[in-house]
Design brief:
Order of helices and strands: HEEHHEHHEHEHEHHEHEE
Low-confidence stretches: 1-15
Largest sheet: 8 strands, mixed, barrel
Strand content: 15-25%
Distance between the termini: 51 Å
Number of helices: 10
Helix content: 25-40%
Strand order of the largest sheet: 1-2-3-4-5-6-7-8
Structural class: alpha/beta
Radius of gyration: 18 Å
Mean pLDDT: 88
Length: 251
């Protein structure tokens, strides 16, 4: 039932027709412990079509409804698959009018399906990052207060990352694949990632390397002190399933 209480914002009361979609899940591995730390929920078409086929249909009129529907779909599927790891969900900050009101459906869905709130990670993606740092900080503060884990996705893909990091320190930072790809042959990338690992360690932020595809990349990243990885080297996204991890890739 829709929340029409005075405390809910207009965005929470506006509905929109949505297109069918589903989710694929890709593991984030904790390599030293040989366990899956989290599964990232990645939007897909109902027959497994790529994310663009869905995201290209999102606009101002349905952004809020889509953001809410993604959260519900991810939690429902995670519960159905009996996911014991953490569940990582990308969110659209420009679809969050007031965090304390817009989070209600997420909390209700998690309770309905018995999925622990403390196992949900909310990722802020670089290309969806709002210029309103005060608004973003209020969202992250409210999410953390509710028990969610907070993360910055695609860190290093744009120019606003450090500005936001100075304002609010998330629980997790996911290094963009542009910093990871070919790092074994790029001294500058190695220096940047080494500095990021040191910074995150000092700030007590968990660091994940995204887009790891080769053993050579993995070797350099582990030498730099990274322990958490996501990429085709370990597992491709699985449509409505939890794919098996290829631990042999780590040797």
């Amino acid at each position: 039932m829709a929340d029409t209480s005075p405390s809910s914002c207009q965005g929470c009361r506006n509905g929109a027709e949505l297109f069918p979609f589903t989710m694929a899940f890709q593991p984030v591995v904790d390599l030293p412990r040989r366990v899956v730390y989290a599964h990232e929920a990645l939007v897909r078409g109902p027959e497994g079509q790529g994310a663009y086929s869905i995201l290209s249909q999102v606009g101002p009129d349905n952004r809020y409804a889509f953001d809410q529907a993604c959260r519900v779909k991810a939690i429902e599927l995670a519960a159905r698959l009996q996911m014991s790891s953490k569940l990582s969900i990308n969110f659209l900050p420009n679809a969050v009018y007031r965090a304390e009101a817009c989070i209600r459906l997420t909390l209700a869905t998690a309770e309905q399906h018995g999925f622990p709130v403390e196992n949900i990670i909310f990722e802020l993606t670089e290309d969806e990052r709002s210029k309103d740092l005060v608004h973003l900080e209020s969202i992250f503060t409210e999410y953390r207060r509710r028990g969610f884990i907070t993360a910055i996705d695609d860190f290093g893909a744009g120019f606003a990352g450090f500005e936001f990091l100075a304002a609010f320190q998330p629980d997790v930072i996911k290094l963009d694949m542009s910093l990871v790809r070919g790092i074994d042959g790029n001294r500058v990338k190695r220096s940047i990632v080494a500095a990021m690992v040191g910074l995150c360690s000092e700030l007590k932020i968990r660091t994940v390397a995204e887009g790891v595809e080769t053993r050579e990349e993995l070797r350099v990243l582990t030498d730099l002190g990274l322990e958490f990885f996501q990429g085709y080297l370990f597992a491709r996204p699985g449509l409505e399933c939890l794919p098996e991890v290829d631990w042999s890739a780590a040797g």
